[in-house]
Structure prediction request, 695 residues.
Amino acid sequence: MAADKVSQADKIASGLTRRQLIEIEACSRCGECLAWCPVYQHDKKEENTARGKLGCLRKMAAEQPGAADQAGLLDGLYACSACGQCHVVCPIRINTPELWEQARLALVSAGLPQPEPQRQQLAQIRQYNNSYGRRQEERGLWAERAWQAGFLLRPVLTWNEQPSEVLYFAGCTASFDQTMQPVAVQSARLLQEAGVRFSILGADEPCCASKLRRMGDSAFPAEAAMRTEMLVRKKVRTIVVSCAGCFKGLHADYRGILPGSIEVLHLTGFLNKLIQEGRLKPKHEVPLAVTYHDPCHLGRHSGIYEEPRRVLGSIPGLRIIEMKRSGPFSACCGMGGGLKLARPELQKKMSAARIREAEATGAEAVVTPCQTCLMGLAAGAVAASSSLPVFHLNEMLIRSVCPDINFDRIAAKLKLPDGPDGKPAA
Amino acid sequence: MIEAAYYKPWILFWICAVLAHGYMDYSFWKKWKSWKRGVQQTSESSWTFRTARIWLMEVLIQRQLLGLSFSRWMIHMLIFWGFLCLAALSMFLFILSLAQPAGVDAGLRDFFLRGNGHALVKVWGDFFGLCLLSGLIAACARRFIARPHQLLNDQGDRALLIFLLWLVFSGFILEGLRLGRAHPDIARYSFVARFLVPFLASGASDAGQWLTAAWIIHSFSGIGLLVYLPRSKLMHSLLGPVVIALNAAEEPDRKDIYWPRIKYHRPTK
Prediction:
């Protein structure tokens, strides 16, 4: 009964942190966020901007909301990729990505609706431990099949078979999405080329669950704790992650949960280190002028801008041309924060815009170290009727280190026929 | 160097000031209670020299705005420093007025109001008043004439600008009227208000009434600011530095956030 007496405003406010409640009142309404917001560029509604969302949230948490405030906030909050551009440009430095994620959680906890596709995806992650609704047993098959196809120097062993100094964490997309499996295969091959002793978790590899955090699922802390316990039990010391989303999850969202003794590295940083140490040698020339797309989870959210550029810079013949918006100001492709599920049409426009920006540089290709951005940008190229190819960073390095196993060849070789359920047969 | 005396309704002023302050304190207390509904979060903060440096650069020098646009930075700096320094002057004189009866002002009140320090008070007041006034006029021009597309222009924004302009204008008018009855030695230090003297000159018989009226308008508007502050977007001037400090303590090493080449990517008006 007591719970019924708690007002909606109190429920929302108690779902935010004290700092966030101060932040929503600190906004000076200067509108700098509006000028940079990649969503607002394609859907010019005030509530899509940080200023608009903060205004609605302020009223929602202060018990003065109108119907328009609630609708506006829900609209704006889910039409947001939480790319963090507003955090970088805000003169007051309101930590917006954290705020949007926490606000989503607070709104769902207060009983407000969430877009159905997001709800379904979250349920799927909780049920299957991956965002593809596939059996966990299929997760590590990419490694087995890549070894059989001759793409690897040695078989990749699972942690249970042989614990190693490094755990390679492929993530759901590179494990289950057939078009993205080459990312995992190429990552493994590059690590092998550098002589790194690593293992994978195979069927034991969990979803990092960061999507639960992104989309405001209250189960995240418990799920993260469970995964941490498993990593500790397996005595993992260093995790190398090739997915920018998983990296942000394990590196930032698990902060305070994951013990400090476990180091989380993104593949690009690790590869850069291997190149600097001379363990990995890009030797073949890749005569290409490319432009680099910073994934939000790697760049703005984690501060990794230089390492991927250094990796690309180490490839003979390869030239980087920066886009108008790069580094901390890189325009989001729209694939993060559940936006693709909530507003797919908007995401496509954002990716297409990014492709046009890339085209304007005169580069011959776009390169990104994130498979999710890769998928988004590839779809964006189609939407923009552009012939500009989009590559994963691994592909550039592979072309220079061992050109025989290019992305398309791996994808073609590993592709499985579709099963009766429309999903690839395992 | 004493100025001519005129009637000031101090009792009414103090009653209103106490009530306004009480209302402001109550509003802040309500806000504090409202913030306390949130979860107390433990974060990895480091309060170091670097944090302090970021705070100084972001709050006192407003480097982010400078990175975006010189004119925008200049407008905000004029308003920020003008307002801050005038408020500091008022606070200083107020403290002295309380300290003198208690006998702990060390003669400072006489020095600043009647002695050689009076010139400094006049120059300070006029200089920062001029800063504030120019900043506000430029802000009006930016908002109403050359309005960049990101600027909202709702009732609250307009009301605040008009209110601040009113406050500054009334201050200069009061000062001009005061100078009309002051010794020329004093007038020359009020280098802005003295130009208003010819326009504000009135017959010696009712000059005191005009002064009283101007004093009431200016000081009661100042009291009004206390009431308006918690409900206006001026709250950002109090909370902004707090949020900047919290963020700087959490992300002091983020060069991409604190030292970006923002203008290179989007120069703004």
